[in-house]
Design a protein that fits this description.
Distance between the termini of chain A: 81 Å
Helix content of chain A: 40-55%
Shape of chain B: globular
Number of strands of chain B: 2
Strand content of chain B: under 5%
Distance between the termini of chain B: 20 Å
Largest interface: A-B, 27 and 33 residues
Oligomer: heterodimer
Order of helices and strands of chain B: HHHHHHHEEHH
Strand content of chain A: 15-25%
Strand order of the largest sheet of chain B: 1-2
Chain lengths: 201, 201
């Protein structure tokens, strides 16, 4: 058969596409469960991290997560559990960063006086710059941070703010736009959380 | 010199994809601010270049000339998605760290360049070797750039602190412009040495 003819070209292209796409679909289907489990663990780990629940390894995440309950207050769904006898409320958030959506979990204590923690599930910030909001030093700043005037502000760039009573955290050096976005997200989310929990206390 | 050794020398040095052919520059700028990301990215590129060269070479007599480039692209995309699926299923943390870069392997000009320039006209195994060594040439240059960028930008190597705390990180090393400086310096150094050796530059 003439290899340069139109019919051969069409049949060849169709067959090649079919074979390769079939293998891909097969590989995707074969790993679907594994990927789903990874995502589930990743999400539960983020919620536990934000709530400051300690765990060791993936098995422990699934076990510890059994104590977490979902409750709805107003329109807001919270994940709640008690850490050292204190109730903790965590909420998933989505907000815009510099390049795209920042998705994560923000947790506060029961009487809304302090942030318990924040964890990032997914972001598209510049690696090495805005992407550093996902580094431990940045997230540790919010651990137990006092909520002042209903929010936590992001100040000037620094190596991490260790004063947990001033209602402020340090921004990431060289990433002012991402840091501003985090401040906006914190302000918005804390106000939503405050309104939703306000009916209770 | 035997053919495989000749190819190795060409792809690593006298015809290095980065500093002689000036291909694959986008990823050389994007992923080189951390050594670990660079390592995984370049392993991915090496795998895809080797496998796509092998496949293109195996199919070359069957591929109609009119659609040869689109079929090459299909084959390259196939291997890239395989890498993406494997990372998501078995190395979720690395998959998260690399984010969109894995998909962008498809756009790496080195892969298409080797498929078109070498695999299209040579037997399968030597084509695979050509692809792999091109990947090594790319890897070598990127690791050198990443070594300096991570060292000066973060004071770390593969995430381990090597410079004292008193070292002030150079923010520019984290951002893409610094890779231009290093790339320029490497091209300059490479060509200078080659001219001295009297090799055709």
């Amino acid at each position: 058969m003439n290899r340069q003819s139109v019919i051969y070209t069409v049949i060849f292209t169709f067959l090649v596409s079919f074979v390769f796409v079939f293998i891909l679909a097969f590989a995707n289907e074969g790993t679907r469960e594994l990927v789903a489990i990874n995502q589930k663990i990743n999400r539960q780990r983020a919620i536990l991290n934000a709530m400051n629940v300690q765990y060791s390894g993936d098995e422990d995440v699934l076990k510890k997560y059994k104590d977490v309950k979902e409750v709805t207050r107003g329109d807001v769904t919270f994940y709640t559990t008690s850490v050292n006898g204190e109730p903790v409320f965590a909420k998933e958030f989505n907000g815009s960063g510099l390049w795209g959506n920042i998705n994560g979990i923000l947790a506060v204590n029961g009487d809304f006086t302090r942030v318990v923690g924040m964890e990032i599930i997914n972001h598209n910030e510049t690696p090495g710059l805005g992407g550093r909001i996902d580094e431990p030093w940045f997230k540790e700043q919010l651990r137990g941070e006092k909520i002042v005037d209903g929010t936590v502000r992001v100040g000037s760039a620094g190596d991490g703010d260790t004063d947990h009573d001033n209602g402020m955290i340090d921004a990431v050096t060289g990433a002012s736009r991402t840091s501003d976005s985090v401040e906006v997200i914190l302000s918005k989310e804390l106000s939503v959380i405050s309104d939703a929990l306000g009916g209770k206390s | 010199m035997s053919a495989p050794a000749q190819i190795l020398k060409e792809n690593l040095w006298t015809n290095n994809p980065i500093f002689m052919q000036i291909l694959g520059i986008c990823s050389a700028l994007a992923v080189t601010n951390l050594l670990s990301n660079t390592m995984i990215m370049t392993i991915g590129v090496t795998f895809v270049t080797a496998m796509s060269n092998l496949t293109v070479s195996l199919l070359k007599s069957l591929i109609p000339r009119k659609v040869r480039m689109i079929v090459q692209t299909l084959i390259i995309a196939f291997y890239v998605i395989i890498v993406d699926i494997l990372l998501r299923a078995y190395l979720p943390d690395i998959s998260k760290a690399l984010g969109p870069y894995v998909g962008l392997i498809i756009t790496n000009c080195i892969i298409m360049g080797r498929a078109e320039a070498y695999a299209q006209a040579n037997p399968p195994l030597i084509s695979m070797w050509d692809g792999a060594t091109s990947g090594f040439g790319y890897m070598a240059v990127l690791l050198v750039i990443a070594f300096f960028r991570e060292l000066l930008g973060f004071g770390t190597l593969f995430g381990f602190q090597v410079l004292p705390d008193s070292f002030v990180p150079w923010t520019i090393m984290v951002t893409a412009p610094s890779a231009f400086f290093f790339l320029g310096a490497i091209i300059w150094a490479g060509k200078t040495i080659m001219n001295r050796e009297g090799a055709p530059a």
